Amino acid sequence: MIKKLKISNKNQEFLAKVEELSGEIITKCDQCGICSGSCPMVPEMDITPSQMMRMVQLGESEVMESKAMWLCASCFACTVRCPRGLDLSRVAEALRQMKLRKAIDHIDIKKLPEDEMERLPQIALISGMRKFTG
Amino acid sequence: MKVPYYPGCTLKTKAKNFETSALAVAKKLGIELIELPRWNCCGTVYSLTDDDLIHHVAPIRNLIRVQEMNKNGLVENDHRLVTLCSMCFNTLKRSNIRVLENSDDLKKINDFMYLEEDYEGNVEVIHFLELIKDIGFEKIRENVTNPLEGLKIAPYYGCMLLRPKEVGIDDPEEPVIQAELLSALGAEVIDNPYKKVCCGSYQTIQDKQVVSNLAYDILMRAKDAGAEAITLSCPLCMFNLDSRQKEIKEEHPYFNEIPVFYFTQLMAIGFGLNEDSYGLDLNYVNPESLLLEKNLIRRNNAK
Question: Which residues contact B283 (CB under 8 A, 6 or more apart)?
Answer without folding.
Answer: B17, B242, B259, B260, B261, B265
